Amino acid sequence: MSRFYEINISDSRLVPLLDKVANDVRLSFDDGMLLDRTFDFHSVMQLADRFRERKVGKKASYIVNAHLNYTNVCVSRCKFCAYWKGRDASDAITLSPEEAVRRIPDRVEEIHIVGGVNPDLDLKYHLDLLTALRKAFPKAVLKAFTAVEIHALAGREKMTVEDLLKELKNAGLGMLPGGGAEIFNEKIRQKICPVKATSEEWLDVHRTAHGLGLKSNSTMLHGHIEGSSDRIDHLIRLRELQDETGGFVAHIPLPYLHGSNELAEKAQALSGLMDVRQVAIARLMLDNVPNIKAYWRAFGVKLAQVCLRAGANDLDGTVSREDIMHEAGSDAPRGLTPEAMEKIIRDAGFEPYRRDSFHVPIDAKTDYLLQADRGGSK
């Protein structure tokens, strides 16, 4: 008998969903709504845990990476963000390429590069930043610039997104991060991030990147003023694009953090149960995305460990220096060692392994640069 049928379901409405998951039948919008609203939270966790085990086994991964927030100047001024500054603010920061290089530690496999929508930064700056980092860290994959940043830069330069991505790829761009998706419902976006790229523009940047051989991640921001239907619609739209392109490597559920931003008074109360549930639902709804991350910088280490038993199979990375979650109120450490990452994973009952940006185990590779090239970084 399938291990799925060992789950002791207390909400009988979940039984048809269990049958679907056990038999690899795709879940519908209504199924997702039930997963999001059922009182039987434990069964949802177990169902996602079994599904994750069937898809990827009992291993969980991490990467040795560094985050680079190259500017905090941003005209988007999203209401959930505590990181942005006006261009004339005393604490506004824009790093030169040389300063950026000095902030990255040695021997990282990935440099995660995101900032604000800074109207003073042109294409040359972005190319110089990538070129300097690629020269200093030739083996690291440069996972750089959210779809929002790409869309805004293309507009400033009067270029198509495709032509811009080709230029960035030639300078060393290896992959796109998943940030900026927030929630796709445009009515909600108008309330929380009215200035940034629309949902369709975000999706189109990733569609274009995938067409050029650039892989990417996806995200969803939950726990602010969105509802269940907004969250499930968001996941289905990601799933549809993945059906079309196959370009998403991983999905990262992101909790809204209440610290130092103007949305806090209107947002939902902080809920660890919601955070874990969204990881589980992502695993079950995104049946075509191989990896689900429990980003420990956003969830905290302890909750991220729980998420590994709710469908996640990755904790992101060592994350040397990250500012955006820190400014929003994250009390997680600013970085962890590989040894600490492996202990966290092992203590949750999983076998840890170190990976690259494309979720290829490091110890399984014969030539790092060749593997990086498979993801489109050279």
Question: What's the layout of helices and strands?
Answer:
Blueprint: H1 15-22, H2 29-37, H3 41-56, E1 59-63, E2 65-69, H4 97-102, E3 110-114, H5 123-136, E4 141-144, H6 147-157, H7 161-171, E5 173-175, H8 186-192, H9 199-211, E6 216-222, H10 228-245, E7 248-255, H11 272-285, E8 291-292, H12 296-299, H13 301-307, E9 314-317, H14 324-327, H15 338-347, E10 351-354, H16 368-374
Parallel strand pairs: 1-9, 1-10, 2-3, 3-4, 4-5, 6-7, 7-8
Task: State the end-to-end distance.
Answer: 47 Å
Q: How many independent structural domains? A: 2
Number of helices: 16
Gyration radius over CA: 20 Å
CATH class of the largest domain: Alpha Beta
Please explain how this structure is put together.
42% of the residues lie in helices and 12% in strands. The protein is globular and about 60 Å long. The protein contains 16 helices and ten strands. It has helices at residues 15-22, 29-37, 41-56, 97-102, 123-136, 147-157, 161-171, 186-192, 199-211, 228-245, 272-285, 296-299, 301-307, 324-327, 338-347, 368-374; strands spanning 59-63, 65-69, 110-114, 141-144, 173-175, 216-222, 248-255, 291-292, 314-317, 351-354. It has two domains: 3-55, no CATH class; 59-374, Aldolase class I (TIM Barrel, Alpha-Beta Barrel), CATH 3.20.20. The strands form three sheets. The chain has a four-stranded parallel β-sheet with strand order 2-3-4-5. Strands 9-1-10 form a three-stranded parallel β-sheet, with helices on one face. The protein is of the alpha/beta class. Helix 5 (123-136) links the parallel strand 3 (110-114) and strand 4.
